[in-house]
Structures
1.
Amino acid sequence: PYFVMLRFLVWTASSAAALSAPSPGVASVASSSLRSPRRRALVASSLVVLPWSAAVAVRPPEFVTTQPGFTRTASGLQVRDVKEGSGRRVEPGDRVVYEWEGYTIGYFGRPFEAKSNVKGGDFNRDRDYDRFVVGRGQVIPALEEGVVGVRQGGVRQLVFGPELGYPMVGDEKLGQVDDPSHDRVGPKPLTFSGMRALNFVLSSKGDRVDKTLLLNVKVIRVDRPGGPKATPGAS
């Protein structure tokens, strides 16, 4: 029983600590979750001693997956604009060039894609960036929906559960990832450690691991179908 209580203490503390790392907008998600006395009381009240079989079946508190300051859409996607852009606004059918960061916010806030430095020296040379066409299913539904409406140069945060995330075979609780390499449906982590961190969470069975993810997405360029490539500041 004491091991179960200690395990939950470590889980909540590590989640807050990991998300307070100096990445754009991520610190505010973690700190605001535990800022108010009511939320701290909720965490404390959750630290009850349970039999092991009961503990592994309990989902984390709701405020871990419902983030303050975010707007929830009809699909369940939570969005927050960190920076407003000034260029073209993303619309369905557009080709979007973007960079991103990803965190397993429901499980210790571990990064599975983190920006180490500024990518690309020339705005029009996009080989260092990811890109997709909105509406073609090339990326997960959360990113497909979440990028629409963002202006070129804007940064938006997306928080979502497995129903809007990477494709699974059957019930997500079975932990069978449809495309473990994430070649067919992105975004794809670029490092082995990032891929392992993401797939560990996705492949976890039952309710042992909260599979809520956080993406920080920056729109670098927006290209209209069949049109010329956008230039910085274009509207």
Note: The longest helix spans residues 2-19.
2.
Amino acid sequence: ARLPFQVHVTFVSAKTKATITRVVTEARPVTRSRDAAVGNVDVGVLATATEQRTAVLARRGSYRAARLVHQQNKVLAAEAVHAAAGDARDRKKKKQAAAKWAKSAKAVSKQLRQELSDEEDDVAAEYDFASSGSGGGGGGGGGRGRATVYDSDDEDNEQDEVRVAKAAKRKARRNKRDDAFSAALFRGAQTKHF
């Protein structure tokens, strides 16, 4: 079986300054055999696609999904290196591409783990706050005929301060994440995987 596809390339001619569009049409063979597919994986292309997909998911805040895509494709790259079809030169090229990717992917993986940890800490803190009884108002029984009186204004102000602090913490983490991901992805983009 073959898979047909087209690529449209538009450019400006250096001589005539006219805009030219070229269409390249080709059909590539496809397989249903996982072993054959893994053996023919281009590790450099896989690395670039994985970094892009991971970045998109992480920017949306889907850290678990980003980490899953990242880990699955690292395993696929390792399998591709071990099952490399072709000659020794092809295997060496795949090993080199996988090694370059491993270096640039380390920073992204570390950042994803940190973001997941921070997110879990936030959830735990919110749960602790909610279950500590600080979220309620009104009085409770304090003995016969006695009621505990809470100053609802003070309590509301406290809750507002906690919300503002959490929002500031989230914003700072998001900015830090954006900077760290940008730096890691910039380093990755500068590394040619193929």
Note: The chain is about 65% helix and 10% strand.
3.
Amino acid sequence: DVEITFQSREDLDLRVWDLASHSWVSAAQVPNLFYSGDDSSPPFFEEVLRIEGELHTDLVVLAQNNGNTRADALITYSWGEDKSCIDGRDAAPRGCVVAQQGAAAKALDDLSGWLVGAFDSAAEVYRAFGANRSSGPDSRARGLGPLDWHCLWNAWPTHDGSRTSWEETFFLVDVNQDRLIDEAELGHTYLTSEVSDVLVSLFD
């Protein structure tokens, strides 16, 4: 199950494109697709798209700007459990790739080394990237959301050289899987390289 919400100060419409038939589709054409329609609650326009169960075609969700000026939108999304992952199958679900946890752990070790050199403490890192506030109005009180972590990842000068993605590293750092990285979780990452150095020195 997937739910996507668009919220903007401008009049935006959600549009759904079927890649197989090369045509726009409506909720009436797809039994498990539900669409809220235009919900105008000043000062925002909000539209919600919900998909229940499995789709048998690939869909693309787009936002259409009906105004004459540039429009910024806040997009939030959530999803339910993927049964193919729960069943323990080796193959990744369609549209996904198998996570490379070893590569992600190595990237976090390297990222930690940069963080220690660039920031005096984990708290300083938290303040710097928590200020983006790109992941929701209440994330400041609870932790760094995915987009905040993405900003941190992009700030790391050598992130392009890692063999993993910011999404995979976010998953490892977010130990309790609440989709927010709190100060304790960020602190563990900050110290990762120093712990690795100690271990290397012990067994060298």
Note: The mean pLDDT is 78.
4.
Amino acid sequence: VAMAFAHYAAASGSSCDAATARDILHAIVAESSCQGPLGGFTGRARNAHGGYRATEHNIDMFALARMLGEKEIMDQAAKFVRHMFGFDPAHPNAYATATDGQPRCSDRRTYGVPIAADTQFWNLLAEVDPDGPRKRASIEFALRPSKDGGFITQDDDLLGGGARLTGVLFTTRGEGAQWENTAAAV
């Protein structure tokens, strides 16, 4: 919602809508900010169940903060995303999906959690982590066929004539192409 207000404010010049977007961003920061070595923001408000930090959520926080010129918030979200590269020892060339949720703002790894495609592609598209070798390694990981641990898969279009389509899985444990992530990857 805050991104929609920010986009509208940029297109219309509406300072009121920009202020609304900024107020939403600051409310999220007040509820979800994590201090410590990983930085970042939780995926849920303080009173919600669990206090995990998701890479996708921090990519979103980075993008919104950039839209609004909030450099400190951008830096805090980017710090977390950078730390997620190789965070899961089973996937040393990818951005991990999240941290453990207990206790709130935990720096502990979650083991056995699949790697999400959006944490690879959206990170690249939003330019959160500027490190070239990490970006390259992440995309090389992501563009491997699913049988080799990557995200590229084939799927039958059962509603549109039965064509065999190539797309991107939602996670390393998924089945079938997920078209939102496929569009991001293209």
Note: The CA atoms of residues 107 and 113 lie 15 Å apart.
